[in-house]
Amino acid sequence: MKAEINKEVDIAIIGGGVAGCTAAIALAGSYNVVLLDQTDSPPKRIGECLPPATRRILKQLDLLEGLDSTLRATNQSQHLKHIGTQSYWGNEQAYIVDLLRNPDGFGWHLDRQAFEIYLREAALKRGVNCFWPAKLQSANFEDHRWSITATAQDKGSNDPLYHFKAKFVIDASGRQSHFARKIGIGRQQYDKLISCWLTLPNLEANKMSTISASEIGWWYSSPLPGNKRILALQTDPDLIDRSTLNDVDQFFRLAKTNREMATLLQRNSSAIGIHQTVAANSTRLNQVAGQQWVALGDAAMSFDPLSSQGMFNAMANAIQLTELMMESDPKSILKAESLKEIQTSYTHQLDRIWEHYNRHKRMYYREEMRWKDSAFWKRRH
Ligand SMILES: Cc1cc2nc3c(=O)[nH]c(=O)nc-3n(C[C@H](O)[C@H](O)[C@H](O)COP(=O)(O)OP(=O)(O)OC[C@H]3O[C@@H](n4cnc5c(N)ncnc54)[C@H](O)[C@@H]3O)c2cc1C
Hints:
- By secondary structure, this protein is an alpha+beta fold.
- The structure holds flavin-adenine dinucleotide.
């Protein structure tokens, strides 16, 4: 027989990634929050570069010290300093953005998995009711509340059944936007960008991130904690053979046709870590907020990795949402006027971010004209 857990809460957050955890931590002092994630611990994933401005958010949430103290405790850098980026974009000269003069200081090359574990642990410590693995199964609006069910696995298993009645739901389930999809909200895809990435031992002294354009897309490489390096190609799926994506030797041969990647890989070792291909396209929910719910982070809108802003945006969104929810009496989230105000202001804020993002994206892609007749660049000019 299935064990059942029933709870009445103020806010249910679906997804314990960067967005969900940040929102849970920010809201925990004022609301009774439940946080669900389908995985029992964060998986290894791409996306390790955290920009310096995140320091302000981490400080505001009292998370900065803890992040740095893990370094002191182990006397080893769990996360590396991000000192800057060299881009070969538009011509063969390096354009260097050096973070030395950034008013917020350096950024980080995160151990992404360790960072997400840190956020999950912080949510638990701040009194958030956390359940993982707990995968969203259904969401129905009944009697002014959301009725949410989740199980550890897909339906049909004997794992516990979680049942929550929530006044408000935050969909932080990433690009799949599971909650929004279940309630019938569509998602617009603006391109088909994919990223094929792998990790390998780092034998290079260069500590900067490197971006280098090529005819079929652009390459990215940067050092990772633990003497590793990431190598990633961003392209469109119809412009590359599946076999090149799946076969490490073919992928390396292709990487070495790019001058900057060839330099970085000169002394490469063949010991490959993870090797995956993931969606990296710009997408957006047709509606980012509705009746007692909002979508946050990638669930609301996902960015081209050229922006390197996904995590920062997820965290900044969470703070904006929390501020909107705190503006009036925190316990008034069920009042119609407060809810309407949150929905309108939040949608407006996200519209502005989306507009700004698209303007910058167009501008950056137009700066690369060396292959203006090739399909990848034509689609983006
Ligand atoms: C190739 C690539 C490179 C990137 N590089 C960077 C970078 O350098 N810097 C940066 O800032 N950003 C980067 N990003 C973007 C960044 O990774 C995302 O913006 C960020 O992960 C968004 O966080 P999130 O919490 O919104 O979503 P996610 O990280 O996707 O988290 C969603 C969570 O929801 C859970 N979940 C999903 N469905 C359910 C369900 N049904 N029930 C319960 N739980 C569920 C998942 O298990 C997951 O833990 C990159 C992205 C790509 C594709």
